[in-house]
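Q: Second attempt. The first request was missing the SMILES, so the protein and zinc ion are both included now.
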Amino acid sequence: MIIYGWRAKILKEAPLTNIECENCKECASHIGIASHYFHLFWIPCFPYAKRVVIACNYCGKVTKEKQMSPDFKSKISEIKAAAPTPKYLFSGLGILAASACFIAFSSYNTGKQQKNFLGSPMTGDIYVLKDNEEASAYKYYLMKVNGVEEDSLFVTYNSYSYNGIPVQLEPEDGFYDVSVKIAKAEIVGMDVRGEIKKVIRDYGDTEGYNRIVEYVVDEEMYEEAIVNE
Ligand SMILES: [Zn+2]
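A: Got both inputs this time. The predicted holo structure:
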């Protein structure tokens, strides 16, 4: 298990007696400057951003940077510059964890992006799905979003199965010219069950994801099925 993420370290705290609290009108606030940093096993790897908050000592109201008035925001850059980021927030970079930090950081970002894609689906999104019940090695197939509604998606599927996450489709493969309605709740279920391996957005023409194939009902198979009944 790798433990990583963002943490914040308070760099500077100072009373702010000349500012009136928006909430209680008392002049009893203090300002805090925090540096957010990426950590791996709680070892700081690299600092990310400095954030300023104002907290009222009297009523406890906390004002974040983005909620502050524009003229106060302009003063903040000076305040931030006056609180240099401690060198030890880079300490993770000096040790063997450096490369691991980077990998963890990238996978953190990739994971976050994938969650964003799942949370706000867009027409054209490609879902790489894994069918764990498929007995052969060809467990991977694709689902493409053709339309997005409030509670559901219209999707279609590709015509081939793959034995791994395909970088591009086989030349004869493409997405069927049909749309099937699927509830967003079902997508969540698929994600929870680990069936969604990847969400692909912003692709070009080389991958073949824009290729459409005709959906033909196999008459022979259909008749055979009836005969067998
Ligand atoms: Zn207050």
